[in-house]
Amino acid sequence: MKALSKLHAREGLWMTRAPVPEIGADDVLIKINKTGICGTDIHIWNWDEWAQKTVPVPLITGHEFAGEIVELGANVEGLSIGQRCSGEGHLIGTQSRQSRAGKFHLDPATRGIGVNEQGAFAEYLRLPAFNVVPLPDGISDDIGAILDPLGNAVHTALSFDLVGEDVLITGAGPIGIMAAAVARHVGARHVVITDVNPDRLALAEKVADVVTVNVAEEELAPVIARLKMKQGFDVGLEMSGNQRALDQMVEAMTMGGRIAMLGIPPGKSPVDWSRIVFKAITIKGVYGREIFETWYKMIAMLENGLDVSGIITHRFPVDEFEAGFAAMKSGQSGKVVLDWRK
Ligand code: NAD
Ligand code: ZN
């Protein structure tokens, strides 16, 4: 089969041929239709410090996918050949306290497809049946291929009650923009999204009903006044990984505000803790998505009017993967989807 692999310990990914994976009794074999390119795949392409210490070589990369089941292991029940699906890319253990309590997303023994284990950028993927998430007819393969990052957005956005709340999202990357659409969908009052990249803010306006602020040019205080908020934002979703954005968020929060942090700041970023203490702010770190509660909720929302389709800005046949990665690296794109059937 065709597979997009990290063949060498240097910058780049290579299209190669690999054997179709053999499945175990508890696995399924999935024929991949579409895949999404993630920021993680860009780290692996660039072979940065994180990738060098995390990713074995050679490895088939990719973890955002939609496809259909073509083979079932002997023990697999409740799934069928021909069934369309996406799936959770975190392969969890069964021994930790968290797993045994059903908090699968908190299992410290988790391994990621396309990061630690063979991934989804291939014509076929082996996946434990446990990880499979069937796709309803109303959810396209394009959307199926971006459920992983939509799950990050949904998990973060649903960290706190948003009904009637004023929500600040820092970072209008694909995940921040999808989180804005989710916040709107679940009934937030004002949703404000910031970035320093005007293309990303323009995309945010297309995809979600939000107020955009270019923080390279404008402060948040006048926006808070214009929207007639009493003190500031009730809930913050940090989705830029930028230290200045977090700082600005803390400043713009109301007393007792709640912040969910998905963005990954580089290294040990300095934080003014006294402001967090005196404002009595709650900060929650967010990793991945809840297995499988987030999947359940996002599919329910997609089937009931949540529309994030505009976040896919580029589609390429897989043989043009280099153009796909270039689009992602440009900082001008939303999600980029590769088609494995062409
Ligand atoms: P992205 O890099 O595409 O988007 C980040 C955006 O933040 C960019 O548009 C950038 O211009 C903007 N930005 C930079 N400085 C800013 C500032 N001062 N104020 C406001 N915006 C600013 O990333 P993404 O794929 O949308 O992911 C969002 C973040 O979530 C990233 O940091 C990513 O590493 C992280 N992430 C975390 C998890 C997790 O499990 N915790 C999972 C996926 C992604
Ligand atoms: Zn991803």
What's the helix and strand layout?
Elements: E1 2-6, E2 14-17, E3 27-36, H1 39-46, H2 49-54, E4 59-60, E5 64-72, E6 84-87, E7 90-91, H3 97-100, E8 111-112, E9 124-128, E10 132-134, H4 141-144, H5 147-157, E11 167-170, H6 174-185, E12 191-195, H7 198-207, E13 211-214, H8 221-226, E14 233-238, H9 243-252, E15 253-261, H10 273-278, E16 282-285, H11 293-302, E17 312-317, H12 321-330, E18 335-339
Parallel strand pairs: 11-12, 11-14, 12-13, 14-15, 15-16, 17-18
Antiparallel strand pairs: 1-2, 1-4, 3-5, 3-9, 3-18, 5-6, 6-10, 7-8
Helix pairs in contact: 5-6, 5-11
Residues 39, 152, 170-176, 194-197, 200, 215, 239-242, 244-245, 262-264, 286-288 line the site of nicotinamide-adenine-dinucleotide.
- Major β-sheet, in short? 7 strands, mixed
Residue-averaged pLDDT, rounded?
A: 97
Present as ligands are: nicotinamide-adenine-dinucleotide, zinc ion
Order of helices and strands: EEEHHEEEEHEEEHHEHEHEHEHEHEHEHE
Q: Work out the helix count.
A: 12
Number of domains: 2
Report the sheet-strand fraction.
25-35%
Q: Kindly report the CATH topology of the largest domain.
A: Quinone Oxidoreductase, Chain A, domain 1
The CATH homologous superfamily of the largest domain is termed Medium-chain alcohol dehydrogenases, catalytic domain
- Shape label: globular
Structural class: alpha/beta
In CATH, the architecture of the largest domain is: Alpha-Beta Complex
Alpha-carbon Rg, integer: 20 Å
The proportion of residues forming helix, as a percent range, comes to: 25-40%
Low-confidence stretches: none
Distance between the termini: 13 Å
CATH domain class of the largest domain: Alpha Beta
